[in-house]
Amino acid sequence: MRIRLTAAGRGIVVLFLGLVLAALLQAEGLRKQAEIQPGGFQRDLALALTRPLVDVSRVLRLTTPRHELQVAIGREHEDQIDTQVHLTLPPPAGPLPRRRRGTPARIHRGTPASVQKPRFSATKPLRIWVAGDSLAQVPGDALERVANPAVQVVGVESRLSTGLARPDLYNWFTRVQEAPAQLRPKVAVFSFGADDAHDFMAGVPDGRHVGLLGSPSWNAEYRRRVDGVTRELNARGIYVVWLGLPIPDGPGFKRSFPIVNRILESVAAAHAKGAAYVDTWHILDDAHGRFAPYLRVHGKVTLMRLPDGVHYTAAAGDLIAAQVLKQLRAVYRLS
User: Fold this and answer.
1) CB 132 within 8 A of CB 119
2) What pLDDT score does 105 carry?
3) N or C: which end of the chain has fewer CB within 10 A?
C-alpha cells in the first residue's frame, strides 16, 4: 500500500531533510559549541548528539564547504578548540602591586617629560593594532578616522563574545603571539572584559581551581593573563593600552565590570613604562557618576550609547580615541 503525503506532510519532510542537511554542513561548529559549554547534563547530551553528526559529515565530505568559506574570510581555525593560555615568559615572582585607596585611577601617564620621546611622522607612522571583543570595534574605527598622518591603524580585530577568560571560544593568546610578526605594531590597544565578567573560565592550569567572579582565585588567574599579555608584548617593544569597561545601564554589569577594571588598572600601573589604562567608565558617566546615554560634546547633546546600555556610538568612540591619543602623546612625539 502506497502512502500519499499531503502538501503539508511533504512540506514537513522537506523541512526535516533541510534541517538534517544544515546540521551536517554545520557539524564542526555544533561540535565546538557542545565542547565549550560548562560541564553538566546539557554538555554531555550535546556531545552525544554532535559526535555521530561530525562523523557522518566528514565521511560525506560535507565539512569541506564550511572550511573553504572560513579560509576565504580568514577564519580557517574557527572550529578548532584551543584552551591553552600561550604565555612564553615566566610569571612574575610575586603579586602585582595594587593601587592604594584614594589615589586617582583615570589615565596612567608613562614617559616623564625629561625622557626623549620616540618620534613618529607621516613617513614613519606609529603603527597601532586594535583588538578585543565587540567593544573594540568602535574605538578602533575612531582611531582610523583620526586625521593625524603620524598614526596608522594596521588592524582592527573585533570578535564577539570572546575574551581572555574563554580561549576555547577564540584563543587571543595565540593571536598575541602571531600579530607582532604579521602586523608589526608599535602599540596594541585592547578592549577585553565585557565577555569575561562571568564565573566560568577556560584554560585554567592543571591542578588549579578558579572560583566565582571576583573571588581571590578568579582575580589572580585573570590578572595572570592580563599581566602575561602585557609582558609578552612589552618584550617585543610594543606599548599596550588597556581600555577599561564603560559604565553600563542597569545593575547587571555594575558589579562585574569594576572587578575587571580594577585588574586591568593594576596591571597597567605595574607596567607604567610599557602600558596604560584608559578609564572609559568616567569618560562616559555624567557629572554625578551615573550612566548617561547622552552627553554634551562641544556644546551639543550627543548620543553616546546604544540601546543595550553597553556598546558605544561613533561619538563615544571618538571620545575614547581622543583619550588614547592623549596617552600616546605622553609617550611618543607624533609630528
Assistant:
1) no
2) 43
3) N
Distance between CA atoms of residues 130 and 113, nearest Å: 26
Dihedral sign, Cα of residue 314, residue 315, residue 317, residue 321: positive
- How far from chain centre, in Å, is Cα 15? 37
The answer on 167 and 22 residing in a single domain is: no
Nearest to 131 by CA among 52, 191, 59: 191
Is residue 82 a part of any domain in this protein? no
In the chain, the number of structural domains is 2
From its phi and psi, is residue 66 left (phi > 0), alpha (psi between -120 and 50) or beta?
Answer: alpha
Low-confidence spans in the chain with pLDDT less than 70: 1-5, 9, 13-25, 27-44, 46-47, 49, 53-54, 60, 62-63, 66-71, 73-81, 92-115
Q: Do 328 and 212 belong together in one domain?
A: yes
**CA separation for the pair 202, 214 (Å, rounded):** 16
**CATH, residue 195:** 3.40.50.1110
Nearest Cα neighbor of 334 from 139, 184, 84, 152 is 152
Strands 300-303 and 294-297, sheet pairing: antiparallel
Residue 257 belongs to domain spanning: 119-334
